[in-house]
């Protein structure tokens, strides 16, 4: 009887240990949340772009270190890392953001896909191709805002809506609002 009870306890203890390893739930990386929040904060209010660009480059270095040390695990971690690289300088940064955002969505298919669309658009524009979703607006000094070059034949408005992006008509209206005009 004692032997059976002892064996049962051993099996339960090891069984629980095994089950806990299988069900290990990861929490979002707190440092990465702070990096993301700082990235967003730098872009509010009166913006000093020289300061923002310096901070952006430091953030990308740190996120690369977190990636290399396997400390980016959750869907939100990947989304936060994607945003940092989406605020990069070139197609290499945007390409990395694209891969990170795809990973985020593969881990959580319910995640808002707007950042994926914006990253695709930014990546395409950096390569000299037109954007396809219509998330990127530009203006040269002294000129009005405009929608960056777009190929309107690649993505339907239904797909834009699915990705949390404005329809083409809404984008046109947005440009007018950005330039202080209304219909």
Q: What topology emerges from the helices and strands here?
A:
Layout: H1 2-22, H2 30-41, H3 49-68, H4 75-86, H5 91-107, H6 114-126, E1 137-138, E2 146-147, H7 157-162, H8 168-178
Antiparallel strand pairs: 1-2
Strand line-up across the major sheet: 1-2
| Oligomerization status of the protein chains | single chain
Beta-strand share of residues: under 5%
The number of helical segments is 8
Mean pLDDT: 90
Shape: globular
Helix content: 55-70%
Gap from first CA to last CA? 86 Å
Order of helices and strands: HHHHHHEEHH
Number of strands: 2
Largest sheet: 2 strands, antiparallel
Rg is 23 Å
User: What is the structural class?
Assistant: mainly alpha
Low-confidence stretches: none
